[in-house]
Amino acid sequence: MRTQGGYQVSRDPDDYPLFLAVREQDVDAWEAFFESFGLPTAFDRLPRDELAGPLQIVLDPQPALKIEHVERYPVVPRTETIEYMYEHYAQFQSALAMLDRMYDNLDLGVTYRRRNGHRHEFPQPE
Asked: Which domain of life is it from (predicted)?
């Protein structure tokens, strides 16, 4: 997910999924591309113990991709990104909370607490 300033989700050196929206017609090409580097692809996030290494590519096939640009980078529109994040809430809860704080007009009502029970504070945009 790319926001103003960027955000990385579900990052752990031992468990590193990359979520990638692709056109349905390009799925085979993306799978072949990542396979050429020995990187596993899947359509759902796999548990770490089912993988040979920490990196996995989670493909999200779409009939078409709507593209916008943020800071000159091509991105999926924010509304579609948020819908995807809700579908995969366990991985994106902290990102949803961050977006809720960054953008006054979202009103997502999402809170995030770290495992130790402390509230995670996100920096306010300037």
From this structure: Archaea
Q: Residues 5, 10, 15, 19: is their CA dihedral positive or negative? A: negative
Query: What range defines the domain where residue 42 resides?
Result: 15-63
Distance CA 83, CA 81 (A): 5
Q: Among 63, 83, 102, which residue terminates a domain?
A: 63
Residue 4 resides in a domain: no
Task: Record the pTM.
Answer: 0.60
- Tally of domains in the chain: 2
Q: What is the pLDDT along the chain (126 residues), one digit of tens a residue?
A: 444 545 555 556 777 788 888 999 999 999 999 999 988 899 988 888 888 888 889 999 999 988 888 888 888 888 888 888 888 777 778 788 888 888 878 878 776 655 554 444 444 444
Rounded distance between C-alpha atoms, residue 73 and residue 1, angstroms = 11
Residues near 54 by beta carbon (within 8 Å), at least 6 away in sequence: 12, 13, 14, 15, 16, 48
Q: What are the C-alpha distances in Å from 1 to residues 24, 28, 49, 102? A: 20, 23, 25, 14
